[in-house]
Write a structure and sequence with these properties.
mainly alpha
């Protein structure tokens, strides 16, 4: 009866999240409490050594992803610093100057430039900042609204692959070292970049071009943008944390911190103390939703890895764990659409808990990490529940479901290619 209850909780809450009846932010802690209660974990205990719902699941779970939470906060802080000293806007302006007035060249160069920006900082705030500068330029150059939004979506997906602040969740959940995560990044990135470039060329030529002026009213905060560029050497700043992690094996928080110091030295803003302090506050505001998700994920992880729950779930998980490269490729490729709509393969939802159980069932942590990162590529571009997808669809006046329909087959192909390489590499 207990296992039936646990399965019912999974099915009901996945259904509620996928139909958007319940937000993931609330669903994860509620699932953690219900799973623990069904497995017989007590709510309270007089014995301080007893694992309880209040102490082990709620209090312990809230702190379980502390490394990932710190990485996210520092990453958001760095992104705000880049924005405040003018580096983000300068990169976009330089890209526009380099591309001239050729729509396809503009789309490709903006894709590459925005990928670099998002590798340093992502989140809705950064997508809005880049999008409000780049999308009007692309539209004015003649690109269709769908293609203009697609360029930003694809760049964000590529940037996330290299964004060191997002790697910490794999370190916390799967105990994979940062340098190991870095060493497998190209398997996730290269097929995605190739498919993204093909998509941009295909949709630019298929949908044709329209020559028109950008007429969408801008919000007041974007009407008086600073047009002063920072010095050229400062434009390398977004790459500093990535290079420190890749080549010097520096931990994530230290790499981001050093990146912030290098940015200030190269850009020399007039009020550096104000930049640092205001960027921290605004950066935390940018990632407040993601921080809440991480706390919920930590609670769910604490619940599903607690011995009473794990003993019930483990036999089911072990039955579906791939034991050969072919099954590894097939299972994670065919099930990759389950990452969208906050499904069970979404690392920012149930995916983290399921990955922890899969590793406990015998799969190598590196294989689980790689599969989750590859599947996340599809989720980052196609998922209609992403806040950045919603904003881009609203800003470009395009249909968010149409974006899902047009991008899903391409992202499925990118996932399949990456999974084939991963299967041949880690199994």
């Amino acid at each position: 009866m207990q296992i039936i209850g646990i399965l019912l909780v999974f099915i009901v809450f996945v259904g509620l999240m996928m139909t958007r009846k319940l937000t993931t932010l609330l669903a994860l802690p509620m699932m953690a409490i219900l799973l623990a209660a069904i497995a017989g974990i007590p709510l309270l205990s007089d014995n301080p050594d007893t694992f309880t719902i209040t102490k082990g699941v709620l209090a312990g779970g809230a702190m379980k992803l502390s490394t990932a939470i710190a990485g996210l906060i520092f990453g958001a802080w760095f992104g705000q610093i880049l924005s405040k000293v003018g580096i983000t806007k300068t990169i976009i302006r330089k890209a526009a100057e380099l591309a001239g007035d050729k729509p396809l060249a503009i789309a490709i160069i903006f894709f590459l430039a925005a990928s670099v920006i998002f590798s340093a900082a992502n989140g809705l705030g950064m997508v809005i900042l880049v999008g409000t500068i780049a999308i009007p330029i692309m539209l004015t150059a003649g690109l269709k609204p769908f293609v203009s939004g697609l360029v930003v979506l694809l760049a964000n997906a590529v940037g996330v692959v290299f964004n060191v602040s997002t790697w910490a969740i794999y370190t916390d959940v799967l105990k994979v070292p940062t340098n190991t995560i870095a060493s497998y990044s190209l398997i996730c990135a290269i097929p995605l970049i190739v498919i993204a470039l093909i998509m941009i060329v295909y949709y630019t030529r298929k949908d044709g071009k329209v020559r028109r002026a950008w007429a969408m009213p801008l919000k007041p905060e974007f009407q008086a943008q600073d047009t002063k560029n920072v010095r050229a050497i400062a434009l390398i700043s977004p790459l500093v944390p990535v290079l420190l992690v890749f080549f010097l094996k520096v931990d994530i928080v230290s790499a981001v911190f050093m990146g912030a110091v290098v940015t200030l030295l190269l850009a020399t803003p007039k009020r550096p103390i104000h930049v640092l302090s205001s960027a921290l506050v605004e950066g935390i505001q940018d990632v407040a939703g993601a921080l809440g998700l991480m706390i919920g994920i930590g609670m769910l992880l604490s619940a599903v890895t607690a011995p009473p729950v794990a003993l019930l779930i483990q036999p089911l998980i072990e039955g579906i764990i791939p034991t050969s490269p072919l099954m590894y490729i097939l299972v994670f490729t065919l099930l990759s659409p389950l990452a969208i709509y906050r499904g069970p393969l979404n690392v920012w939802g149930l995916g983290s808990g399921i990955a922890a159980l899969i590793v406990a069932g015998g799969m190598a942590p590196v294989a689980a990490m790689l599969a989750l990162r590859i599947v996340s590529n599809l989720q980052a571009v196609s998922d209609p529940t992403n806040s950045h997808n919603v904003w881009i669809a609203d800003y470009t006046k395009t249909d968010i479901i149409e974006t899902l329909r047009k991008t899903l087959p391409w992202m499925f192909a990118a996932v399949m290619i990456s999974m084939i390489i991963a299967g041949l590499t880690v199994f």
